[in-house]
Amino acid sequence: MEKVTRKWWETSVIYQIYPRSFYDSNGDGIGDIQGIIQKLDYLEKLGIDAVWLSPVYKSPQDDNGYDISDYQDIDPIFGSLQDMEELIRKAKEKNIRIIMDLVLNHTSDEHPWFIEARKSKDNPYHDYYVWRDGVEGEYPNELKSAFCGPAWEWVPECQQYYLHQFSVKQPDLNWENPKLRQEIYKMINWWMEKGVGGFRLDVIDLIGKEPDKMVMAEGKMLHPYLKEMSRATFQKGDLVTVGETWSATPERAMLYSNPDGSELSMVFQFEHMVLDQVPGKEKWDLRELPFVEFKEVFEKWQTELYNKGWNSLFLNNHDLPRAVSRFGDDGKYRVESAKMLATCLHGMQGTPYIYQGEELGMTNVQFDIQEYRDIELLNVYKERIEQGYPEEEVMRSIYVKGRDNARTPMQWSEEPNAGFTKGTPWIRCNPNYTMINAEEALIDQDSVFYYYQKLIRLRKTEPILTDGRFRLLLREDPSIFAYTRETEKEELLVLCNFNGQEVSYELPDIWKDQEVLISNYAQEGSFGTLRPYEAKMIIIRKGE
Ligand code: NOJ
Hints:
The protein is α/β, with parallel strands linked by helices. It has helices at about 35-40, 40-45, 80-95, 110-115, 180-195, 220-230, 250-255, 290-305, 325, 335-345, 375-385, 390-400, 440-445, 450-460, 465; strands spanning about 15, 50-55, 55-60, 70-75, 95-100, 130, 150-155, 160-165, 200, 240-245, 265-270, 310-315, 350-355, 470-475, 480-485, 490-495, 505, 515-520, 530, 535-540. Strands 11-10-9-5-2-1-13-12 form an eight-stranded parallel sheet, covered by helices on one side. A five-stranded antiparallel sheet has the order 14-15-16-20-18.
């Protein structure tokens, strides 16, 4: 087989930091950039190659930084531009690249562009945003904001509505305006000159929106815009770029992540993340995970992008519940199931992402409503209670799907506030930090942390993890996720039990007594059965 040269991000593991909740160095209760610098040794020990940083730009923090008021400055709650430069430099010394979060679909309403834009229809910046006249004194159309309520807001000075797909404080940018696009490219190049390793592009599938046709994602200009942006910016450097695309299908992902590099490196797709909601409804409308479908979604992405694109691999992020609570068992088998989920994901082809605290097996929380901070969660609570949903049902959805599950402070130690801050944390800590924390994990050789460290190392030493072709096994099994990866030289079997019971399976005898690369149980089990949440990778080195 011809040896393909891999790009750096194809053999990398990326760690996501939600800066506000990572580590607070100055006692104001909010995580900051100096806090990240202080924890670089921890990240180096884990072995990750790059850090994706959720937004740290200047922002009124209506949506925790996803509402940017200055793309070229840092919010004082996180530090300064000098801190950012120091982070990029010090991370580089440890071979860790810093990936910035680019929010290009919208800005804050406090961005100078919008402050100008809303002054009048004739203002030179008016056309940087999306404006429409009302229809018979009503909204231009029925478009809804992702954070509840109409997606249009009236501005008397202009006698027009502006579009906001997220909060009222996040007006949508008008990508049809070439001047706006050029300003954005200039800003991206400025960050590239600062030495960043890449970008994560927030809801990038929305920039080609056609609001008059009610088309938000995948508008007809989306891919031309991406190609233009990529040529004007990313292609000048050796960057990783990952687009957040809730609408992506494998066919579209082949465009986004075309190996010719004309758009992005890869996208985050969410097909596996919407299976536990009632089809056609919202994420708050819960249903049990259809496990066979879950496996088939992964199979589809693994096979369809093989040699034609590149997958990102993730089970949680700052918008999603904790993986171990959602797909594993955050009680009795927390450690086993956290390791099992990691095995299942890291055995696949693509770039794995670890969300802060995932490497400790951090879990969801159940708070009182006034203890939550997330705008989306608080809006949905208000809306659903007004609509007459029983309080208990609304709270259950929030416990299961609320974004604050992922945003409670990183659990560093058993000290007050999980060792995250010396002050009062901006959001309450998960009370289980006395048992689940980094200090503890670093002492325990069997911790979830060291298991992730091992998986990350395997990605470097076992080329089959990068190259092998995926094949799903035991398709109909209601508990086991099993697959192989294959190259000319090797074959890898990944076996994962998603169940708290012992289960049995039938697989060809060739897999018996082969080399076990990694397993989450200390004692080897017997071939043909898997203990609760057991997972392992078995490898056959052909011709040996
Ligand atoms: C997706 C981000 O991940 C989320 O946190 C944010 O609220 C929306 N985009 C709007 O920017």
